[in-house]
Specification:
It contains 5 helices and no strands. It has 125 residues and is mostly helical. It has 2 domains: 63 residues; 61 residues. α1 packs antiparallel against α3 and α4 runs antiparallel to α5.
């Protein structure tokens, strides 16, 4: 498979992952029924797994390392934070806490997108 095909596949999976994240988040703020739906739940995890696999394939194909490319290291750190805060958000009982973690994860998603687009580190240099 050629690099551009994998890159575009990765981008489509990223968008799908984000959409599923918001569907589950907003569902939890309402009734929570959609977030508990097995298809949505399993689909979200499968999508996130495919996203990580495609990211690994892209790094391999492009022969880049997060230790050499600081923007990529930042992106990986932010993805770990996104996952952690997503889990924390899912366990919140109060709406204020849910909204806070939703806003925090939204900021992280925006930073990940920025790093992917410009490939310039925000903090590390």
């Amino acid at each position: 498979m050629d690099y551009l095909a994998v890159k575009h596949t990765h981008m489509v999976i990223a968008v799908l992952s984000i959409v599923l994240f918001y569907i589950r988040s907003f569902s939890r703020m309402a009734s929570g029924n959609l977030a508990k739906n097995k298809v949505v739940f399993i689909g979200s995890h499968v999508t996130d797994t495919l996203l990580l696999v495609s990211a690994g394939v892209l790094m391999f194909m492009a022969s880049i390392s997060p230790l050499q490319q600081h923007w990529l290291l930042e992106k990986i750190i932010l993805v770990v934070l996104y996952i952690a805060f997503g889990i924390i958000a899912a366990k919140q009982q109060k709406t204020v806490a849910k909204v806070f973690f939703l806003l925090l994860t939204t900021a992280i998603i925006l930073a990940i997108g920025y790093l992917a687009a410009v490939k310039t580190p925000l903090i590390l240099s």
